[in-house]
Amino acid sequence: MIHILSEQNSIFNQYIAELRDITIQKDSMRFRRNLERIGEIMSYEISKTMEYVKKETTTPLGIAETSHLAEQPVIATILRAGLPMHIGVLNYFDSAENAFISAYRRHHKDNSFDIHVEYVSSPNLDGKTLILCDPMIATGGSIVLAYKAILAKGTPKHVHIISAISSKEGVDFVRANLPTKDFTIWCGAIDEELTAHSYIVPGLGDAGDLAFGEKI
Description:
It is built from six helices and twelve strands. By secondary structure, the chain is an alpha/beta fold.
Protein backbone atom coordinates (compact mmCIF):
# COMPACT_ATOMS: atom_id res chain seq x y z
CA MET A 1 0.00 0.00 0.00
CA ILE A 2 1.19 3.52 -0.80
CA HIS A 3 0.12 6.65 1.10
CA ILE A 4 0.88 10.07 -0.44
CA LEU A 5 0.30 12.61 2.32
CA SER A 6 0.40 15.70 0.10
CA GLU A 7 -2.75 14.57 -1.71
CA GLN A 8 -4.77 16.01 1.17
CA ASN A 9 -4.56 19.65 2.23
CA SER A 10 -2.80 20.06 5.55
CA ILE A 11 0.14 21.93 7.10
CA PHE A 12 2.24 18.98 5.91
CA ASN A 13 2.13 20.45 2.38
CA GLN A 14 3.80 23.65 3.59
CA TYR A 15 6.73 21.66 5.01
CA ILE A 16 7.14 19.87 1.67
CA ALA A 17 7.02 23.21 -0.16
CA GLU A 18 9.69 24.66 2.11
CA LEU A 19 11.94 21.64 1.54
CA ARG A 20 11.72 22.29 -2.20
CA ASP A 21 12.12 26.09 -2.03
CA ILE A 22 15.60 27.08 -3.24
CA THR A 23 15.60 30.17 -1.01
CA ILE A 24 14.43 28.52 2.21
CA GLN A 25 16.90 25.67 1.58
CA LYS A 26 19.74 28.07 2.35
CA ASP A 27 18.80 27.75 6.03
CA SER A 28 20.10 24.25 6.79
CA MET A 29 18.64 24.30 10.30
CA ARG A 30 15.15 24.92 8.90
CA PHE A 31 15.70 22.24 6.25
CA ARG A 32 16.57 19.72 8.96
CA ARG A 33 13.61 20.80 11.08
CA ASN A 34 11.20 20.39 8.17
CA LEU A 35 12.48 16.85 7.56
CA GLU A 36 12.03 16.22 11.27
CA ARG A 37 8.45 17.54 11.14
CA ILE A 38 7.69 15.27 8.19
CA GLY A 39 9.03 12.33 10.19
CA GLU A 40 6.78 13.31 13.09
CA ILE A 41 3.63 13.59 10.97
CA MET A 42 4.32 10.29 9.24
CA SER A 43 4.88 8.65 12.62
CA TYR A 44 1.48 9.85 13.78
CA GLU A 45 -0.11 8.34 10.67
CA ILE A 46 1.79 5.08 11.09
CA SER A 47 0.72 4.90 14.74
CA LYS A 48 -2.90 4.57 13.60
CA THR A 49 -2.05 1.22 11.96
CA MET A 50 -0.41 -0.33 15.02
CA GLU A 51 -1.77 -2.52 17.80
CA TYR A 52 -2.71 -1.17 21.24
CA VAL A 53 -3.48 -2.58 24.66
CA LYS A 54 -5.65 -1.15 27.44
CA LYS A 55 -4.00 -0.25 30.72
CA GLU A 56 -5.05 1.45 33.92
CA THR A 57 -3.35 4.77 34.61
CA THR A 58 -3.44 6.31 38.07
CA THR A 59 -4.26 10.04 38.09
CA PRO A 60 -4.28 12.34 41.15
CA LEU A 61 -8.06 11.78 41.35
CA GLY A 62 -8.62 8.19 40.28
CA ILE A 63 -8.00 5.53 37.67
CA ALA A 64 -8.30 6.08 33.90
CA GLU A 65 -8.34 3.38 31.26
CA THR A 66 -5.80 4.34 28.59
CA SER A 67 -4.48 2.90 25.33
CA HIS A 68 -0.80 2.10 24.93
CA LEU A 69 1.23 0.73 22.04
CA ALA A 70 1.42 -3.04 22.32
CA GLU A 71 5.06 -2.85 21.19
CA GLN A 72 7.55 -0.26 20.03
CA PRO A 73 8.88 -0.29 16.44
CA VAL A 74 12.49 -0.34 15.33
CA ILE A 75 13.49 2.86 13.51
CA ALA A 76 16.11 2.37 10.79
CA THR A 77 17.84 5.10 8.81
CA ILE A 78 20.03 5.24 5.75
CA LEU A 79 22.90 7.56 6.64
CA ARG A 80 23.42 10.46 6.47
CA ALA A 81 20.45 12.15 4.83
CA GLY A 82 17.90 10.15 6.83
CA LEU A 83 19.01 11.40 10.24
CA PRO A 84 16.60 14.38 10.57
CA MET A 85 13.59 12.22 9.66
CA HIS A 86 14.86 9.57 12.06
CA ILE A 87 14.83 12.12 14.89
CA GLY A 88 11.26 13.10 13.95
CA VAL A 89 10.13 9.47 14.15
CA LEU A 90 12.00 8.99 17.42
CA ASN A 91 10.29 12.07 18.86
CA TYR A 92 7.00 10.14 18.64
CA PHE A 93 8.14 6.55 19.18
CA ASP A 94 10.47 7.66 21.95
CA SER A 95 11.07 4.18 23.39
CA ALA A 96 11.86 2.60 20.03
CA GLU A 97 15.01 0.66 19.24
CA ASN A 98 17.20 2.08 16.49
CA ALA A 99 19.15 0.82 13.48
CA PHE A 100 21.56 2.58 11.10
CA ILE A 101 22.67 1.65 7.60
CA SER A 102 25.61 3.24 5.79
CA ALA A 103 24.97 3.26 2.03
CA TYR A 104 26.31 5.47 -0.72
CA ARG A 105 26.50 5.90 -4.50
CA ARG A 106 29.87 4.70 -5.84
CA HIS A 107 30.35 6.63 -9.09
CA HIS A 108 32.34 5.42 -12.09
CA LYS A 109 34.18 7.29 -14.83
CA ASP A 110 31.36 6.71 -17.32
CA ASN A 111 28.96 8.61 -14.99
CA SER A 112 27.23 5.39 -13.97
CA PHE A 113 27.09 4.33 -10.34
CA ASP A 114 26.24 1.45 -8.09
CA ILE A 115 24.96 1.56 -4.53
CA HIS A 116 27.24 0.15 -1.87
CA VAL A 117 26.16 -0.83 1.66
CA GLU A 118 29.15 -0.93 3.99
CA TYR A 119 27.78 -0.96 7.55
CA VAL A 120 24.67 -2.04 9.46
CA SER A 121 24.00 -1.50 13.16
CA SER A 122 20.71 -2.98 14.36
CA PRO A 123 18.91 -4.80 17.15
CA ASN A 124 17.19 -8.11 16.46
CA LEU A 125 14.28 -7.53 14.06
CA ASP A 126 12.42 -10.83 14.24
CA GLY A 127 8.66 -10.26 14.46
CA LYS A 128 8.99 -6.50 14.95
CA THR A 129 7.63 -3.49 13.08
CA LEU A 130 10.39 -1.71 11.15
CA ILE A 131 10.23 1.95 10.07
CA LEU A 132 12.84 2.62 7.39
CA CYS A 133 13.67 6.31 6.79
CA ASP A 134 15.12 7.74 3.58
CA PRO A 135 14.12 11.30 2.60
CA MET A 136 14.52 10.63 -1.14
CA ILE A 137 13.54 7.51 -3.08
CA ALA A 138 15.16 8.17 -6.45
CA THR A 139 15.97 4.85 -8.15
CA GLY A 140 14.76 2.85 -5.14
CA GLY A 141 18.01 0.90 -5.13
CA SER A 142 19.19 2.19 -1.75
CA ILE A 143 15.99 1.13 0.02
CA VAL A 144 16.02 -2.35 -1.49
CA LEU A 145 19.71 -2.97 -0.78
CA ALA A 146 19.44 -1.52 2.74
CA TYR A 147 16.50 -3.77 3.55
CA LYS A 148 18.25 -6.84 2.19
CA ALA A 149 21.32 -5.98 4.28
CA ILE A 150 19.33 -5.48 7.47
CA LEU A 151 17.65 -8.87 7.08
CA ALA A 152 20.85 -10.30 8.56
CA LYS A 153 19.48 -8.95 11.87
CA GLY A 154 16.13 -10.75 11.58
CA THR A 155 12.85 -10.67 9.68
CA PRO A 156 10.34 -7.92 10.59
CA LYS A 157 6.62 -8.65 10.58
CA HIS A 158 5.92 -5.40 8.73
CA VAL A 159 7.99 -2.63 7.16
CA HIS A 160 6.98 1.03 6.85
CA ILE A 161 9.12 2.97 4.37
CA ILE A 162 8.95 6.74 4.77
CA SER A 163 10.21 9.31 2.28
CA ALA A 164 9.69 13.05 1.83
CA ILE A 165 10.06 13.07 -1.98
CA SER A 166 10.03 10.01 -4.24
CA SER A 167 10.13 9.37 -7.95
CA LYS A 168 7.45 7.23 -9.56
CA GLU A 169 10.20 5.02 -11.01
CA GLY A 170 11.78 4.55 -7.59
CA VAL A 171 8.51 3.64 -5.92
CA ASP A 172 7.75 1.15 -8.69
CA PHE A 173 11.21 -0.40 -8.27
CA VAL A 174 10.72 -0.80 -4.52
CA ARG A 175 7.31 -2.39 -5.01
CA ALA A 176 8.75 -4.85 -7.52
CA ASN A 177 11.98 -5.73 -5.71
CA LEU A 178 11.51 -5.50 -1.95
CA PRO A 179 11.82 -9.11 -0.71
CA THR A 180 8.69 -8.97 1.45
CA LYS A 181 4.98 -8.50 0.84
CA ASP A 182 4.40 -6.97 4.26
CA PHE A 183 5.34 -3.36 3.63
CA THR A 184 3.74 0.08 3.34
CA ILE A 185 5.24 3.12 1.61
CA TRP A 186 4.56 6.60 2.98
CA CYS A 187 5.55 9.49 0.67
CA GLY A 188 5.31 13.22 1.07
CA ALA A 189 5.06 13.59 -2.70
CA ILE A 190 5.80 11.53 -5.80
CA ASP A 191 7.45 13.26 -8.78
CA GLU A 192 7.20 11.84 -12.29
CA GLU A 193 10.68 12.58 -13.67
CA LEU A 194 14.02 10.93 -12.89
CA THR A 195 17.05 12.26 -14.82
CA ALA A 196 19.73 10.16 -16.52
CA HIS A 197 21.89 10.82 -13.46
CA SER A 198 19.08 9.58 -11.17
CA TYR A 199 18.03 12.91 -9.71
CA ILE A 200 14.34 13.53 -9.01
CA VAL A 201 12.72 16.44 -10.91
CA PRO A 202 11.47 18.81 -9.61
CA GLY A 203 12.64 17.10 -6.39
CA LEU A 204 14.60 19.25 -4.00
CA GLY A 205 18.29 18.59 -4.66
CA ASP A 206 20.65 16.58 -2.45
CA ALA A 207 18.95 16.16 0.94
CA GLY A 208 22.18 15.14 2.71
CA ASP A 209 24.09 18.19 1.47
CA LEU A 210 21.22 20.56 2.26
CA ALA A 211 20.92 19.18 5.79
CA PHE A 212 24.59 18.78 6.70
CA GLY A 213 26.75 20.56 4.12
CA GLU A 214 28.41 19.54 0.88
CA LYS A 215 30.67 16.48 0.86
CA ILE A 216 33.85 15.89 -1.16
